[in-house]
Amino acid sequence: MDLGLNGKVALVAGGSAGIGLAIARDLVREGATVSIAGRDPGRLAKARDELLAEPDAGPGAGVGTRVLDVRDTAATRAWVDDVAAEHGAVHIVVANAGGPPAGPTGAFGPDEYRAAVELGMIAHIAFVQAALPHLRRAGWGRILLVTSETIREIIPKFALSGIVRPGLIGYAKTLVHELGPGDVTVNVLAPGYTATDALLADLTGDPEAETARVAAEAGIPLGRVARPEEVAAAGTFLLSARASFVTGTVQVVDGGRSLGM
Length: 261
Hints:
This protein has 261 residues and is α/β, with parallel strands linked by helices. Helices cover 44% and strands 15% of the residues. It folds into 2 domains: 9-191 and 232-253, 3-Layer(aba) Sandwich (Rossmann fold), CATH 3.40.50; 197-225, no CATH class. The protein has helices at residues 18-29, 41-52, 73-87, 110-138, 159-164, 167-179, 197-201, 207-218, 228-238, and strands spanning 9-13, 33-38, 62-67, 92-95, 141-146, 184-191, 250-253. It has a 7-stranded parallel sheet with strand order 3-2-1-4-5-6-7, sandwiched between helices.
């Protein structure tokens, strides 16, 4: 299926591993030029090499990297502007960052709450705001805010995530109406338990057995956690030309775990 992404220019924050890298790989396969950002130069270099070696890369694909902490607003804006200057446009923005630490509400003080807001909401918004002039200029754009299933269903042991992330729904839905007519869409991707490095790092023993245990404890009907590429598939569709009438939505990818309507 042609997703209409050949020749598009994409920015993927948190693109050196996990869901961000899986989305970047999909975009490369579709022929997009992709710049991935992350804090760790070594992981970025490894991810770049993987993407450059992608055997199914589309004919127009390209790969670039930027060492970046998305909480640094000025550095994020410079990344966006530099990519636009180098490639003549920016079309796709994937706002993605790590989550706040786990724990109940009382485990954190005001400073931890402020840090969670900065990482889980402000950094995403600042990134999108930096890119919006370029998307408008291009006349075609896709914005994807990568969050968590806690945006829709509270999980008490992930209190900070459940408190901070829902603010992005309000931002996305408001931005849709401010953008008005045109071909720039804004959507939210809300993955559940996924076999990323962050999840696997907390497990001991056989990864398959341990992730099955996590799935059972979490009550995931499909009986396993997601693979990053499964989450990425939903996100990549929302970034595609075929999703041109899908905007302001929250796409949960949780294996059926959520019981909310």
